[in-house]
Design brief:
Shape: globular
Strand content: 35-45%
Bound molecules: 2-acetamido-2-deoxy-beta-D-glucopyranose
Order of helices and strands: HEEEEEEEEEEEEEEE
Largest sheet: 11 strands, antiparallel
């Protein structure tokens, strides 16, 4: 079923994958761990980046959940995979939004955003630590996309970003390099159930 992720019709694949993650954890906060004591232990709060679009700002605290599938076999390399969900509360509606990474083609620093709809980025929790797993596609080896073992990546940073507003947010560095954004500091992200 995972191979659906790599289908050329990405939008369709994302829909398929989202539909598979029918189970939901309880609410948790996301907390940043850092060697920088100023930000170590600070939680991440949902913050307004656009109409019904939320980023993950340093400071504040919001309840998040992992949508996962109880029928997937848990891969010991990556833990429990799924999508991060945030419930947007409107005047007379609640809407669960998935997290996806938002990219500028000219930057290697991507910003996680919760946007209503089906587009989502698969994440994983190994224990309580948040990762983004590589699920098969590996272009560091030739031929690319040879069935590769799943592997977790931790490329979380806290950076000054602009995905609608100028904030200090959680960010993800695309690829193994260092962030081109000089404000970025490396962090780990853990969940703490509420
Ligand atoms: C997962 O979701 C299925 C389908 O809705 C449900 O039957 C099952 O009880 C859920 N399992 C857990 C662990 O929540
Ligand atoms: C960061 O916080 C964690 C948990 O609160 C603590 O275990 C760790 O020692 C702290 N690290 C530093 C460098 O202060
Ligand atoms: C620690 O974090 C604060 C707040 O983001 C920042 O101003 C400071 O430069 C950081 N210190 C180091 C050593 O990175
Ligand atoms: C939205 O969720 C909140 C908190 O769980 C709840 O109090 C409220 O009744 C919900 N609103 C709707 C329209 O379902
Ligand atoms: C997460 O799962 C719950 C329970 O199945 C569902 O109501 C919600 O819409 C899902 N959220 C997303 C973003 O897929």
């Amino acid at each position: 079923m995972r191979s659906a992720v790599f289908a050329p019709l990405l939008a369709l694949a994302a829909t398929t994958v989202t539909a598979q993650y029918l189970n939901q954890t309880a609410d948790f906060n996301l907390v940043v761990l850092s060697s920088n004591e100023t930000i170590n232990g600070t939680s991440l709060g949902a913050c307004h980046e656009g109409a019904a679009i939320e980023g993950l700002c340093l400071g504040g605290a919001s309840p998040f959940r992992l949508n996962y599938s109880s029928t997937f076999e848990v891969d010991p390399n990556i833990g429990v995979e799924g999508i991060l969900a945030f419930e947007l509360q409107g005047g007379n509606f609640n809407l669960s939004s998935p997290m996806s990474l938002s990219y500028y083609p000219t930057s290697n620093v991507a910003v996680p955003l919760f946007t209503p709809g089906y587009d989502s980025t698969t994440v994983s929790f190994l224990g309580d630590e948040l990762y983004i797993p590589r699920l098969g596609y590996d272009d560091t080896q030739i031929p690319v996309n040879a069935p590769a073992e799943s592997e977790n990546f931790n490329r979380w940073y806290v950076c000054q970003t602009y995905a609608g507003y100028l904030y200090t947010t959680l960010a993800w560095v695309v690829g193994p390099g260092t962030p081109q954004n000089p404000s970025c500091q490396k962090v780990d992200v853990v969940r703490v159930f509420i």
